Amino acid sequence: MKTLYFVLLCMIVISCSNIVDIAEFANPVNKEVVYIKYINWGWNESKVLISLNNEDIDTENDYDFGEGSLLYKTSNDTIYVYAHNYSVPKINKFKTHIIVINDLDARIDFRYYKDYGLKRIPKKKKGIQMPPIN
């Protein structure tokens, strides 16, 4: 019986998603707000999405960059993303240009990403992160 309770507790923890970090990009040209979200499920499952909403998780309509962190920069009406593993939305509703640069071909030393004008999401190092207490 204890094993069953433990399994149920683990399933609840793993199934709960938490947006741990979010960056907002207001596109003045197309009058659109785009969100770059780092989402954490349980202890070690994570995903980085670029989305048109800041709350819901919609993998069919979002750019999905999989696990880990993401380096990016913004300019006028464009978001430049450094990645090599991603999927595009099935129906692209984005007005903002999202250009994916293959990070394996970029010839950038990503340890010094700030020197290149890049930002990182999540901003904090990986590890167990507790949700904020309201």
Which short descriptors sum up this protein?
4-stranded mixed sheet; 4-stranded antiparallel sheet; globular; mainly beta; single chain; 134 residues
Folded structure, characterized:
With 134 residues, the protein is mainly β. It is 10% helix and 38% strand. The protein has one helix at 2-15, and strands spanning 17-27, 32-41, 45-51, 63-64, 70-75, 78-83, 97-102, 119-121. β2 and β3 (45-51) form a beta hairpin. The strands form two sheets. The protein has a four-stranded antiparallel sheet. The chain starts with a helix and ends in a 13-residue tail after the last strand. The model is unreliable at 126-134 (pLDDT under 50). The chain contains one helix and eight strands.
- Please provide the count of β strands: 8
Beta fraction: 35-45%
Uncertain residue segments: 126-134
Helicity range: 10-25%
Based on secondary structure, the structural category is mainly beta
Largest sheet: 4 strands, antiparallel
Tell me the strand order in the biggest sheet. 1-2-3-4
Tally of individual helices: 1
